[in-house]
Amino acid sequence: MAKFGTLSQEQIKEINRVNVINAIRNNKETTKHEVSRLLKLSIPTVTSNINKLIKEGFVYESGVAESTGGRKPVLLSFNENARFSIGVNMTPEHVTTILMNLNGIIIESKSFKYSKVKDFDEAVQHIERNILSILEGRQIPKKKVLGIGLSLPGLVEEEKLILDNAPNLGVKEYDFHEFQERLGIKVYVENEANIAAYGETIQGQHKNMSNVVYVSITEGVGTGIIINNQIYKSAHKKAGEFGHMRISDEKIQCNCGRTGCWELYASKRALFKFFTEMTGEFVDQLAVIFSEENLAKAQVREAISKYLEYLFIGIENIVLGLNPEYVIIGGELGKYKDELLQFINEKIHLKSSYMEYEGTRIIFSDLGDQGAVIGAALLPQQSIFYHRNNVI
Ligand SMILES: [Zn+2]
Q1: In which domain, by residue range, is 292 found?
Q2: Tens digits of per-residue pLDDT, 231-268?
Q3: C or N terminus of the chain, fewer CB within 10 Å?
């Protein structure tokens, strides 16, 4: 925690504002005396913050409370529709755009298949049209939109608004400044696993998720690291490439040019490969593997077992290196949480050795395959509800 003495007047003002808005948001109805008591702030400080928030539309007077002697206190409520944010998740399969309100509720969602557009540029234009049509349909003026968060499957330089490299989308060094200018709405970009990790810490069901590693299982394996509630990327912006740690000396070539990478054994494609090896049948959909019919077959269960063994080799290494509070298994595989948990629970030895290791709890994502798009929409809301940089 930052030392109070090192903060400037401006920073203290910002912290007070953020704390007041959160205090009102977290209670359905409250009063300024209640906020003052809760935050240990003086009545004049609370009053001036509340007056400003009322003027900006974030807070409104929703009635009067019972008097405890003297004047009846005014009840204050948070206006969840005072501003909105937009989240976009781009994957090689789908591109999803959502509109979210300030309580994190998804109001509208639009998707298209990446295979339907001819290239990345066209996908970006399609996103633009979806955003404009959502805003027009809901009659939301752009000035009420805090920003657009983009979740991208690759290396990202968030300050420069650049997607460095996304091999699965066939794009390099894409600059989102033009997109931002055309729309006239602030744009935020972030890597998919980082953003899903972030989404999970805010909207996931588990408590105290301030130190988390999120393992996103899709075409590849991405990992997002959250340390003390901040996304950890480090100086070269490349931290979290656990998908490419070497776990085998088999000479199978990875997309990255090396061999034996974890991603070759723990991605969605690896599970397809194990399925085909065991059953002799081709598969390219997780839904097929996790169908009730297939889950009842011994060979399919063996394929999933083999896959989980490899998945947990990598997770063990992550736990030994970072010892987070949680490792969250998510991405597309996260959608099959119930099936996988049932599978693991039936094998008692798996349950005891898998789900907790060195004090780290290993859990499946609460947000399923929605983590990235939810996290993307939450990014622009940082400026309202948090008072520090989210990336270290
Ligand atoms: Zn690799």
Answers
A1: 207-366
A2: 888 877 778 889 999 999 999 999 888 999 999 999 99
A3: N
At 344, the pLDDT band (50, 70, 90 cuts) reads confident
What total of structural domains would you count in the chain?
3
40 — phi, psi (to 5°)? 55, 45
Q: What is the CATH number of the domain that holds 283?
A: 3.30.420.40
In order of 211, 212, 312, 316, the CA distances from 319 in angstroms are: 11, 10, 10, 5
Q: Are 185 and 379 in contact (CB under 8 A)?
A: no
Task: Tell me the pTM.
Answer: 0.87
Same domain, 213 and 338: yes
How far is CA 289 from each of CA 91, 299, 312, 332, rounded to the nearest angstrom? 21, 11, 19, 13
Distance from residue 253's CA to the centre of ligand 1 (Å): 8
Ligand 1 centroid, distance to 295 Cα (angstroms): 30
Between the CA of 13 and the centroid of ligand 1 the distance, in Å, is 46
Cα(219) to centroid(ligand 1), Å: 12
Q: Residue 131: name the closest of 154, 105, 170, 97 by CA.
A: 97
> Is 114 in the same domain as 137?
yes
* Residue 110 located in a structural domain: yes
Between CA 91 and CA 104 the distance in angstroms is: 22
Q: Do 339 and 281 share a structural domain?
A: yes
Instruction: For residue 167, report the distance from its CA to the centre of ligand 1, in Å.
Output: 12
The structure tokens listed for 7 are 């903060």
